Amino acid sequence: MDILKKLTRKSRIKSPWLLHFDCGSCNGCDIEVLACLTPVYDIERFGIINVGNPKHADLLLVTGTVNHRNKKVLVNLAEQMPEPKIVVALGSCGLSGGVFREAYNVIGGVDKIIPVDVYVPGCPPKPEAIIDGVVTGLEKFSKKKDG
Amino acid sequence: MLNTILFVLILGPFIAGALCFIIRSGHVRSFIVLAMGCLIATASIILFIKGPFSHTPPPLLGIPTHFLVLWGDDLLLFVMLYFAFKHGHLFTKILIIFQIVCLDYFELFMVDHTENFPLFFADNLSLIMVLIISIVGSLICVFAIPYMNKHEEHQGLKKSRQPKFFAFLVVIIGAMNGLVLSNNIIFMYMFFEITTLGSFMLISHDQNETAINNAVRALWMNCVAGAAFIIAMIWAYVIQGTVDAQKLIQAGHMGGIMLTPLALLCFAAMVKAAQIPFQSWLLGAMVAPTPTSALLHSSTMVKAGVYIALRFAPGYAGTFLSQSLAVSGAFAFLATSAMAIRESNGKKVLAYSTIGNLGLIFACAGINTPEAITAGILLIIFHAFSKALLFLCVGDIEQHIGSRDIEVMRGLYARMPRTTLIAVLGIVTMMLPPFGVLLSKWMAIEAASKHLFVILPLAVGSAMMVVYWARWAGILLSAPHGLKVEPEKQGLLTRFPLLVLVWGAVVLSLCAPLVYSKLVVPILSAPSFSIRAGIFENPTGTFLFYPVMLILALGFIYAVYAAKKARKARLSGPYLCGAQTTDPESFEGPMKKPVAVLSGAIYFESIFGNQKLTVWVNIFGGMLLALLVGGSL
Amino acid sequence: MIKGIIMVFIGVFVAPLLGGLIAGVDRRLTAWFQSRYGPPVWQPFFDVIKLFGKERMVVNRWLVFCAHVYITAAMLSVVLFFLQSDLLLILFVQAVGAIFLVIGALSTTSPYSQLGANRELIQILTYEPLIILAFVGIYLVTGSFRISEILVQTKPLLVSLPLLYIALCYALTIKLRKSPFDFSTSHHAHQELVKGFLTEYSGPYLALVEIGHWYEVVLILGLCSLFWATSWIGIIALVGVTYFCEILIDNVTARLTWRWMLGYVWPMGLAMGFVNLIWLHGR
Ligand code: SF4
Question: CB atoms < 10 A from the CB of C107, how many?
Fold first, then answer.
């Protein structure tokens, strides 16, 4: 039994599938996320796949601020991800609202709506930082109890 | 004993029909139909247990049987002529008058009525047919009792038309029994014509314009078949001097001279079985109440066509006729599959699939090897059950939801789980191993492998068939998520036929090796497969019937178990880009208004959907038929 | 008997491992073509184990049922293959799985999965006739549909069935979900297709589907190997070259529409197959 658990943990670290949700970012962060997929950074070597479907995802990568219009979508997406899952907030906007913080329609950072496991600062964060954030998240991910 | 059974099987339904017609009380009628169903089903089983026979019954009421047949025939043709005049269809009139003249001349001046041969002959093929006709046919009649009541409720007629409807419904069963049991081809012709008239009456039942138009179309097309039959009969008599079907078959094609009558017979059979380009009569028959279509499609009428082709198959083995029969059957299979794939009308899909399967049976008859004949006979058996079942399901569904469109049936599982499950099971028995229809298709493909022009259409057609069945099954099950489904109410008389048919289809498939070795082998010239531990084997191939069935069944059971266990799993709505509302079947649209999710299946309109395709298919099918008849002149 | 048991064992246990490994190599090669480093070859196993450890989440229970039927059928077809059974039977059993997978996808109301399922049906429609024709070609050469009969041939089938092999390769490209025919679900198109008809299969059920796919990959490559079954070198060379070409095609072509696929693969594949059959018949 223990071996099985260990194996599952190891596999989790080795195969985090991420769902990238643009929650109202300026697209700066998104471009950096996509840069991670390019041959230069090649996040697939960590087994990471950028899936388009919360039902297959382990990691929710949120960029940008949350506003009244899209907060529901954020909740829905997080809800449709099977446990265990982690949420990574990217960029100043995702952390706190960033430059849009004072806008009339903005609620603020991602953690105002759903619990966030890892925060990656930067405006936008560098791909290295994003990868680092994800890898930090993996530790947490593997320790989460089974769904 | 035999006399009684034959009387019950053939004349019993006629008497029941007459009673239905005369006694207009609904309860009595239901009783008559039920009683007749039980009676002929039992009689058919007894006949089956008694085994093959050839027999001449004593004349009825002391009148020589051939007089009865002559009068019956004339009466029948004049009734048809009456309808031809009533609806003013010139071509039908000509055809019928032609038949009357030919028949009377033939009967009165040509045929030697003193010739002595058994009037009835039954080998396993006939017995199988009798079983199918009597059992499936009766079940359909039983189903019709509650169905027709509801049907008339919708129409609000002053005077019920049910007496006539049930009269012809049961008469067709009797006529079919007569057709498959008689050995005298004049008898065969008479019963053949009775089914024509019966189907005309049933199709025109609703008496609206489309019903009458379609009925008239069915009438003239079947009269073409009748005319071809009568010419074939006379021609064969001129050559052979006999109306004994067995002698005609044994005589074979005799270096070509018997080929033309045989070709005409095949032609008649193909028209009766609504092969291309005559498919429109069977499609038109869809306007009639569902039991009609179920009866015409699954057990009777069209099966009369394939029966004749299979019956006479030894007579034309190894000829050009045989080959062209195979090619045109295969072509019909391909063309109807292509037409079915573009249909969203459930009944039409069923109709096309019937024609396609009949085409496959014709192709098997045409290939004419023991393997192919096996495939053909097995297909008749398994197809009858599954198809009757599907028709009854669609009829029931139509009465509940008011539509026969597949797209409207989307998510039917949530509304009518029982009927839906039965329908899906019916679909599965039509297309997947280890069920009988697929087993016969496997045999057909292996048998057809040497015939290039047969195998190509078969390969493409069977892929199309899979598509339209799978699409339908999936759509039926497409239930909203996490729903508690309440089983719907089904009347006893609706439920009983459905359950018998579905169990029949499944259990028969389970017994396929037995069915083959006990029923089919005795008919064949040489056994086509050896059976060991439920494994069909011959030099061409192996079908691990029971092993495959066993493992798939285990898989199924485990899958059901897993699905049951998934009750505890978390429910989540379908993925809608995160925009779903509290109702997971709709997403949040403009102005925060919920928008329901709609999706539709692909019906290939751009490829198979145009009218031109039908025209070309008809032309090509017509050419193949012309080749079939012309080539054997 | 012993041999039979060993074969069943290989079919049930070794085949998926092999299939997973092939999938890993596939990803590695693809990465190499794109001048990336790529995941380890064991990656598919990590993925599947992880999926098994995830929460069970369902849209409706038909999906669960269908995923299980799919893997049963896929496994059975591979076992039948290793038992050297009848080719057509293998195809039909394999079809059970393919169809139930589609029925499962159709049973949800999710638009992505509906669309993907319809496309998958079109893919089935496209490849099935080609595979049947290829089998008929094999029959015309060997006189039987049994694989055991193919293995006793002294001449590679490829010599007499070159065109049918190409036609079969079309079918295989579709069956392996390789570009340009990967529009029902895809290994790459996570964004535009979501995941096609696999959208609603998640967690352990997706893992089942994945393993089923490995079985199918083995089956498909096994079918390819039949065309040069006279020597081990031939098998390895033929399968290797074919699979390499599949991956190459996957990487250099763009995804196209189903109309294009039907309009291109059918005429090409059927014509080539038919010509080959006529040629065999003429001999
Ligand atoms: S953090 Fe900067 S780059 Fe990222 S979304 Fe906000 S403003 Fe754009």
Answer: 30
Domain definitions of chain A by residue range: 15-141
- CA–centroid distance, A41 to ligand 1, in Å, is 20
Is B588 part of the contact surface with chain A (CB cutoff 8 Å)? yes
Q: List pLDDT tens digits, range B341-357.
A: 888 888 888 889 999 99
- With contact defined as beta carbons under 8 Å apart, do C104 and C62 qualify? yes
pLDDT at B361: 92
| Structural tokens at position B16 | 């029941």
Selection from B307, B305, B366 nearest residue B331 by Cα: B366
To test the contact with chain B by mutation, choose from C66, C123, C125 the residue with the greatest count of B C-beta atoms within 10 A, namely C125
Protein residue closest via CA to atom 6 of ligand 1: A93
pLDDT score at A41? 87
Q: Is A67 in the pocket of ligand 1 (CB under 6 A)?
A: no
DSSP C84: T
Contact B570, C54 (CB under 8 A): no
| Widest CA span in chain B | 89
Work out the mean pLDDT of chain C and round it to a whole number. 87
Q: Which residues contact residue B586 at a Cβ distance below 8 angstroms, ignoring those fewer than 6 apart?
A: B580, B594, B595, B596, B597
ipTM of this model? 0.92
Place of tokens 């643009």: A22
CB of A109 shorter than 6 A to ligand 1: no
- Neighbouring residues of B238: CB distance < 8 A, sequence distance ≥ 6: none
Cβ-based contacts of B467 with chain C (< 8 Å): 121-122, 124-125
pLDDT tens per residue across span A20-36 = 888 888 888 889 988 88
Q: In what order do the strands lie in the sheet with B541-544?
A: B530-532, B535-538, B541-544
| DSSP letter, residue B542 | E
Rounded Cα–Cα distance for residues A141 and C46 (Å): 14
For chain B, what are the domain ranges? 320-530+583-633
Any CB–CB contact under 8 A between A100 and chain B? no
Q: What is the mean pLDDT of residues B525-530?
A: 79
Question: pTM score, two decimals?
Answer: 0.92
A77 lines ligand 1 (CB under 6 A): no
**Closest C-alpha among B191, B196, B171, B168 to residue B180:** B191
Q: Map residue C114 onto helix, strand or coil.
A: helix
* A93 close to ligand 1 (CB < 6 Angstrom): yes
According to DSSP, the residues that pair with B530 across neighbouring strands are: B537
Q: Which two tokens stand for residue B52?
A: 């093959």
Q: In the CATH hierarchy, which fold is given to the domain comprising A15-141?
A: Rossmann fold (3.40.50)
